[in-house]
Amino acid sequence: MIMESMKTMEDKILTEEVTERHEVAKKVQALLESNGWKYDKHEGKENKLVMPFRLTNLTAIVIVTISEEVDAISVKVLMQDKCDKKFYLAINDYFARTNYSLRYGAFHIDHDDGELSYRYATQCTVDTFDEETIDDYIRICMNTVDKHYPVIERLAAGQLTSDEKKRYLMQSKMLVMGVREE
To answer: Which residues are paired to 115 by β-bridges?
Structure first.
C-alpha cells in the first residue's frame, strides 16, 4: 500500500513537471512568434525551438531549449564555420580571454568536430518566466556572437596577425618545454 502511494505521488510529480515544461515552452513559442521569428519545434525529453538567423556578420542557428530536469531555458547560437584543428589553440585562447569579460554566457568549441557555439542558460519555471527577460537573453546571445564573429571567423580559418602568430608560437614552445620537463 505504501509503495503504491509513493508510486502515485511520483507519477503525479512527473506529470506536473512535464505539464510545466510544456507551459514554459508555450510561453517561449508565443514570445518567438510575437517577434516574427520562424522556428522548428523538436519535442522530446527537452523542447527545442530551432531558428535560422541572418545577423549582420553571419548566418547562425539559434536553439532555445526548455529543460524539465533543471527547470531551465538555454540559448545556443551555432556558428556556420568550424575551426580547423590546427587553430584550436588560437580559438581557445580567444574564447578564454573573451569569456572572462562576458556577463552572460560563454563561447565554446567542440574539440571533436570544431563546431563553434555560444551558450547561455538560466533557471526558469512557469512562475518565474518573464517574457521581456527571456527576449533580452536571446537577443544578447545573438548580438554577442555577431559582435565577436569577425575575429572568430578569422582565427578559425587560421588568418592570424603577426602578433598572434608570435604569441601562439611562444605558448606552444612553453607547452612543449613543460611537457619535456615531466
So the answer is: 82
Query: Contact at 8 Å (CB) between 108 and 99?
Result: no
Instruction: Give the whole-angstrom CA distance, residue 167 versus residue 158.
Output: 14
Question: Exposure pattern of 131-154 as b/e (b: 16+ CB <10 Å)?
Answer: eeebeebbebbbebbbebbeebbb
Q: What cell numbers appear for 35 in the block? A: 517577434
Q: Where are the beta strands (DSSP E) in the chain?
A: 40-42, 46-54, 59-67, 72-82, 106-109, 115-123
**Residues 26-51: tens digit of each pLDDT:** 999 999 999 999 999 988 778 899 99
pTM for the predicted model, two decimal places: 0.83
Contact 140, 120 (CB under 8 A): yes
